[in-house]
Specification:
By secondary structure, the chain is α+β, with helices and mostly antiparallel strands. The protein is 56% helix and 14% strand. It has a three-stranded antiparallel beta sheet with strand order 1-5-4. This is YwgA family protein. It comes from Brevibacillus fluminis.
């Protein structure tokens, strides 16, 4: 029952901390698209792939005292930081949450900013489309982000890099 919760805690333990709700969603989505065992269902939303299930799970983990959520305010922007606390670490000792090769993916993704991961997750969301169609989706749906074709190519190279970590 709590396996999905344990996987989120494990992701944050591996990362050390995750800065931002959006970044957490993108990391889970990208990992799931690359066959890491996450259960959360995603749909396309304003900031790319979004999971209501993941949002609820994170809220539950915070309410249960297993995960610390710290709010940072930078001007008009509020950002949340997630850190595994001691109670959460104890919980993981009793709940299996092996993410296998996903650990390397998580460490690598956490080095990137949320804007870039938003692009990568959008690319992966439309991974069944031909390149030109996917690029048009990115330019249309993410017009406020003003991504360039160079950034899309960098995002595709990043996906290849992550796939290379799977072995």
């Amino acid at each position: 029952m709590l396996n999905g919760h344990a996987k989120i805690l494990r992701l944050i333990e591996i990362a050390g901390e995750v800065s931002g709700r959006k970044k957490l969603h993108k990391m889970v989505f990208i990992a799931k698209k690359l066959n890491v065992d996450f259960d959360d269902r995603f749909q396309f939303h304003m900031y790319g792939p979004y999971s209501e299930e993941l949002t609820l799970r994170v809220d539950e983990l915070c309410n249960l005292g297993l995960l610390d959520e710290e709010m940072e305010t930078k001007g008009a922007i509020q950002k949340y930081r997630y850190i595994l606390n001691e109670v959460g670490s104890d919980f993981l000792r009793f709940h299996e949450a092996d993410l296998g090769y996903g650990e390397a993916l998580i460490r690598r993704m956490n080095q990137e900013n949320s804007r870039f991961l938003e692009l990568v997750s959008t690319i992966l969301y439309f991974d069944t489309l031909m390149y030109e169609e996917m690029k048009e989706k990115v330019f249309t749906l993410k017009s406020k982000q003003k991504y360039t074709e160079e950034e899309i190519l960098k995002g595709l190279a990043f996906v290849d890099e992550l796939r290379g970590l799977q072995h």
